[in-house]
Design goal:
Blueprint lengths: L1 E4 L2 E10 L2 E6 L11 H13 L7 E6 L10 E5 L5
Antiparallel strand pairs: 1-2, 2-3, 4-5
Length: 82
Amino acid sequence: MAKIMGGHLVGKYLKEVENIDIVFGISGGHIEPDETPIEAVIRETREEAGLDISPYLPVEKLDKRVTSTPTPAYFFEETIPR
């Protein structure tokens, strides 16, 4: 299930865990060698949230380590029709 705020996809519900109704996280993954960051976010959002999106606004690129590997993280904004 996707988390929508103000018509924007901001993440997805991952799973239910003991004593917590839901765990919330953003769709994410890796960039395939033959794709751009935008193509990757479209693919990952389709795979993880079941939504077809067309991100138009890069919000942030973090060059600092955000995972166990020193790769950049890209964040995009997308308006989803109601």
